[in-house]
Amino acid sequence: MTRKPADAARANPARAIAFHPGDTPDGGAVSLALAELRRPVVDLAPVDPVIDPAVAVFMGDCPMAFRPPVVAIAGGAPIVGAAAILAALAAAEPSKLLPRRPAERAVAEHWSAWIETDLVPPMMASIALRRLAPRHLPEAIEQARQVLKDRVARVEAALEDGPTLAGRWSVADMRLMAWLHRADWVGLGLGSRPALGAFADRAYAKPRIVLALAATKRPPVIVDHEGREGQGA
């Protein structure tokens, strides 16, 4: 008999994970990890929007806030933000979310950290700038575009050497795929990036990945410095 997630959680609360995807593509990254773990998932209340300092660098005097994903594992304290969540899930069940070989695991952890610090901030800023400030901050838009172009080129080069970033599907690939899934929000085209396009096509060929990415089917809610909300591009 197949249980609904809430029924499975009541039957085995020690394995249940409460989850809210937030309002950015990072919710898809967490959904992908949860799909690999195959543990019961129940709803969790969202957290308040936050301003990420790394994103604010691109926004000048117009910082904007995003609602990040949040999980609570087996009734524990909430863990906020994709990087912290993926690290916690990988620590709990590394064999399902990281490569087994130490060298490949180190590569996956390196890419996870790089995506958090170098790739996601210009992507997040691009979403906000394209939606709420397309005419008012042209220099900021161009800066984010140039930075993003250079950093995406690094990922494209890495994927030319293999089908994943670290030898096997890992949390680093999940974070990357979640953002590629919403490339339209960012203004990122994959047509001229064959390695990234092939990476996304391989992921979309797996039904569990398509289902998990449905968590980011709606554009994110963006809150500007005056508290006004808008929808992502």
From TrEMBL:
Top-rank lineage group of the source organism: Bacteria
Keywords attached to this entry: Membrane, Transmembrane, Transmembrane helix
Domain GST C-terminal residues, every copy: 101-223
Annotated transmembrane regions: 70-92
KW Membrane (keyword) present: yes
Matches recorded under PROSITE patterns: GST_CTER (PS50405)
SUPFAM superfamilies with a match to the protein in the record: GST C-terminal domain-like
UniProt-recorded Gene Ontology molecular function terms: transferase activity
InterPro entries named in the record: Glutathione-S-Trfase_C-like, Glutathione-S-Trfase_C_sf
Keyword Transmembrane recorded: yes
Descriptive protein name: Glutathione S-transferase
